[in-house]
Model the fold of this input.
Amino acid sequence: MDESEFDEMVSSLTPHESADGVTTYRNTVSITCPACDEPFDDLVICEDELNSLELSMLLDICVTTHEDDVLLFTHKH
Done:
């Protein structure tokens, strides 16, 4: 994913939460996931080298990277 694609996608999402090197955005406009081409629910950006995520529900997750960040695209069941 190049810089312009990333910037366009993130600017279309709704910021949700940012803490401890993890930023989350809600996909309220049904943007499709770059990995599976299905709409995703949330984008989780892991900015630190090591991050821990606690999941409160069962999710399918697609993964990619942008620069040094890991991007997780969640898909709720």
